[in-house]
Backbone:
């Protein structure tokens, strides 16, 4: 059995991130949300304490954290940095780009790119989804045709987080379209300075607005085979592994954001009680907050459990899907419930209002809730 | 070959949590075609076989032909180890 008592190192890590983010990663988030603006300055600042490379080994410039410590670090970030878009951009960069490059990339690619990715010098994007792929992301139109020691890649990708500002892209393309998921998809690392692709205009969106989103276009782009990540045909495996990291760890940002909002709402009710409002008149709010605290703690333990098991080297297909499903669904509900406690103030531009918008997409990215349920059901023999 | 089947059976039931007991999982029980193994689990199985037996699947070898039963898996691994595949 296991107990989730953070180690002294994990406590120190949490405090380090809370202290740093509180001092250096706050301010201007409302403006960036309104203007849909990515802050390279904030990204570089995050690199100063290794946030873009939390789980990457120290040999490549990362902090070498195991999955549970990575989750705890992201939870500390979500708690202390009010810019959820920045937190999401960092998490997507780390879990869906840097981590698979570390796990599957050649030594040459790792040495060339991971240090910059970990230090905040480079921004990465994961390019998988296509306009026509629907729920089966592997039924893709972007094709890579091998020509000697290189590939010619044509097609387009949609909804690429960090797309407009990325210096590197982990691109998935069909090298054998007929085979699809089983051996037909390959992964490539693109360097914006070397590979000729175009990023579309940033797409407008309702939440996470400081994390830019765009399409990417590839027109017979030449990519040397040395930029293949893993072997030909291993794209599905690489993508699946990166999604496990996302499902197990990205929820840390949401847990942290929920904890902060819960504390704000709790303080609001405490202030009302201290101001003379009779306790029985605020009992419904107190009960609502107590219920939220219990639900938050339950999904937190589910997330910790999945990340811990992942660190043990176990298969976490089911656990990661359950954690992702539970955390994201609660995130969406809890941000709305907390806004309700704030009354009209919960609708005015600000952290409470913004978090509601930021939370909506959490049940969509890294695989929608329906997909998580499908994965869980399959592990149950259904 | 029995050892290969035994280790793969352990992996499928113990690690991948297939909803079937060790006893029920026969050597010829269909895995992929019966949907007992989904596509994600198939990839995890390939990863396991490569690490466990030091073999390498080529893209076209990640298929039902080589993964659809313990018999087929064991034959494929033995072929690879013997340098026939």
Residues:
């Amino acid at each position: 059995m296991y107990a989730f008592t953070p180690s002294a190192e994990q406590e120190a890590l949490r405090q380090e991130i809370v202290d740093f983010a509180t001092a250096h990663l706050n301010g201007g988030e409302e403006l960036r949300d309104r203007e849909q603006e990515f802050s390279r300055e904030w990204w570089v600042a995050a690199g100063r304490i290794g946030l873009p490379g939390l789980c990457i080994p120290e040999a490549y410039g990362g902090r070498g954290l195991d999955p549970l410590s990575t989750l705890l670090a992201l939870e500390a970030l979500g708690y202390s940095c009010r810019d959820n878009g920045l937190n999401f951009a960092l998490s997507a960069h780390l879990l869906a780009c840097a981590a698979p490059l570390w796990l599957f990339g050649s030594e040459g690619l790792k040495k060339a790119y991971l240090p910059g990715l970990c230090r905040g010098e480079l921004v990465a994007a994961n390019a998988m989804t296509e306009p026509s792929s629907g729920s089966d992301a592997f039924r893709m139109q972007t094709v890579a045709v091998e020509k000697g020691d290189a590939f010619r890649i044509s097609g387009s990708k949609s909804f690429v987080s960090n797309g407009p500002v990325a210096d590197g892209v982990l691109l998935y393309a069909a090298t054998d379209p007929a085979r699809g998921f089983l051996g037909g998809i390959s992964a490539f690392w693109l360097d914006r300075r070397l590979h000729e692709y175009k990023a579309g205009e940033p797409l407008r969106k309702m939440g996470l607005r400081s994390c830019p989103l765009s399409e990417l276009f590839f027109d017979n782009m030449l990519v040397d085979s040395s930029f293949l990540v893993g072997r030909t045909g291993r794209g599905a495996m690489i993508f699946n592994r990166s999604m496990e990291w996302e499902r197990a760890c990205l929820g840390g940002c949401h847990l942290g954001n929920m904890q902060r909002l819960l504390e704000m709402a709790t303080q609001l009710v405490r202030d009302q009680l201290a101001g003379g409002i009779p306790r029985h008149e605020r009992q419904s709010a107190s009960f609502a907050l107590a219920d939220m605290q219990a639900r938050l703690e339950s999904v937190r333990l589910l997330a910790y459990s999945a990340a811990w098991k992942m660190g043990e080297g176990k298969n976490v297909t089911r656990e990661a899907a359950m954690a992702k499903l539970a955390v994201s669904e609660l995130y969406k509900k809890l941000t709305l419930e907390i806004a309700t406690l704030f009354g009209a103030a919960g609708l005015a531009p600000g952290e409470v209002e913004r978090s509601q918008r930021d939370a909506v997409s959490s049940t969509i990215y890294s695989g929608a809730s329906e997909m998580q349920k499908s994965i869980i059901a399959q592990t149950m023999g259904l | 070959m029995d050892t290969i089947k035994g280790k793969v059976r352990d992996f499928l039931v113990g690690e991948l949590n297939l909803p079937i007991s060790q006893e029920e999982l026969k050597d010829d029980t269909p895995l992929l075609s019966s949907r007992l193994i989904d596509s994600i689990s198939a990839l995890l199985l390939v990863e396991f076989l490569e690490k466990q037996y030091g073999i390498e699947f080529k893209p076209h070898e990640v298929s039902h032909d080589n993964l659809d039963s313990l018999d087929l898996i064991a034959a494929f691994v033995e072929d690879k180890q013997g340098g026939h595949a």
